[in-house]
Specification:
By secondary structure, this protein is α/β, with parallel strands linked by helices. The radius of gyration is 25 Å and the shape is globular.
Length: 425
């Protein structure tokens, strides 16, 4: 099936080139039909200087004032959907503020904010279906929120309490949900890229209608995992969206030190990927672009690279100090046009949200987030025996011996271990 599809595609390319040569009064003998590439011969030597090429355009529908620029491509979104999107974006902000401050107080060990990238999360998630498979990096909490993850589930995971499905065996913000088709986040950068390509290939072989979507940052595109992911997905004709959040920095490394090409979409042609570049602060453009990418990749079995241009307003994580590598003036300039404020302006222009309603909404969200936080903080930690579970179907003798040795050690020195805070099992 794959070979037949590839041959048909090659034949169509040759036919297209043949048409071009006829228009140029050339014969088919001037078409280079090598196994590695098909192109038209030329007798003019020319070094292609890629820096002279025009940069790829960046699609947007809404300007900084919240005004719609193109009504023809504006998606059909109800007032109820708009309110849901805005509420979810504000929920992210409230959760980020509380958990970031909690980490500074030593109440959670680690956290990563999503500030500045809310439209990317909500706009893309709204364009997906429940059956689509999501592979995230670590700054896509809004995608999970839109798919139905509850505040208490976020908090349980960050506190690693007995409500955490992973039983405290993951770092904070490393969420996952089998029920929501959201694969658990992994700390090493880029590992999700080839996994998404494989999942998409499995979807194609199963005959199910759906796609895989893989979120990653501009820094992850520099990882070795990106190459096999892009290449396999293209050569195997996989229904997958590679969604790059180009926020300007890979932790402390700015993009101008990462690459010299035109962002990440410039790599699409080399792998045979289709692509869209979109304004990541425009939730409508992100939604429309993701929907178009999803429709295309499922219909054509061709991977799509979607690059959302944005700016990371917060620190990389609570272990980072962004002021050490970027000027405050730079950050302040991007704070003039945030994703949340742009949608807010649109809704106020449409008479959908007054200042009083906005203030009341944000106050209510702060209460909800605080309640979930307080409840999670009071829960017991997972039982210690979970450390030895969920690797083997049946525990090995060595694992059983290690578990017994640990429990015996704790029993011998009870004052050294605060087991009263842990669930008994």
């Amino acid at each position: 099936f794959d070979r037949m599809f590839a041959l048909k595609r090659c034949a169509s390319r040759v036919a297209a080139l043949a048409s071009q040569t006829r228009m140029g009064a050339r014969s088919m003998s001037e078409v280079a039909q090598f196994p590695g590439a098909t192109s038209v011969f030329t007798n003019e030597l020319k070094l292609h200087v890629t820096t002279e090429d025009e940069p790829a355009s960046c699609f947007r529908l809404m300007d900084k004032q919240g005004t719609i620029l193109n009504q023809d491509d504006f998606p059909e979104v109800s007032d109820e959907q708009l309110m849901q999107w805005y509420t979810e974006m504000c929920t992210l902000n409230a959760m980020d503020t509380l958990l970031y401050n909690a980490q500074r107080q030593g109440r959670v060990p680690f956290y990563m904010t999503n500030t500045g990238e809310e439209a990317i999360h909500i706009g893309s998630a709204a364009a997906l279906k429940a059956e689509d498979i999501v592979y995230a990096q670590y700054r896509e909490a809004g995608v999970l929120l839109h798919r139905g993850f509850k505040l208490n589930e976020f908090m349980d995971q960050c506190f690693a309490n007995n409500g955490d499905p992973a039983h405290g065996r993951q770092m904070p913000v490393h969420y996952g949900s089998k029920a929501l088709n959201f694969h658990t986040i992994s700390s090493p950068l880029g590992t999700q890229l080839p996994q998404a390509a494989g999942a998409a290939y499995a979807l194609k072989l199963s005959g199910k209608e759906g796609c895989a979507i893989c979120y990653f940052g501009d820094g992850s595109a520099s990882e070795g995992d990106a190459h096999p992911a892009f290449n396999f997905s293209a050569t195997l004709d996989c229904p997958v969206i590679f969604f790059c959040r180009n926020n300007g920095y890979a932790i402390s490394t700015p993009t101008h030190e990462q690459y010299r090409g035109d962002g990440i979409v410039s790599r699409a042609a080399g792998y045979g990927l289709d692509f869209i570049r979109v304004d990541g602060n425009d939730v409508f453009a992100v939604y429309a672009a993701t929907k178009a990418a999803r429709d295309s990749t499922i219909k054509n079995n061709r991977p799509v690279l979607l690059e959302a241009m944005t700016y990371r307003l917060g620190h990389h994580s609570t272990s980072d100090d962004a002021s050490a590598y970027r000027a405050n003036s730079e950050m302040e300039s991007f704070q003039q046009d945030t994703a949340v404020e742009r949608l807010q302006r649109f809704m106020r222009n449409r008479g959908l949200l007054s200042e009083e309603e906005d203030a009341a909404l944000k106050k209510d969200l702060q209460v909800q987030v605080r309640e979930a936080f307080t409840t999670a903080e009071k829960k017991e930690k997972p039982s210690l025996v979970h450390m030895f579970e969920d690797v083997y179907d049946t525990k090995t003798k060595r694992l059983i011996a290690q578990e017994q040795a640990m429990l015996a050690h704790i029993e011998k020195y009870p004052d050294e271990y605060p087991t009263k805070f842990y669930e008994k099992k």
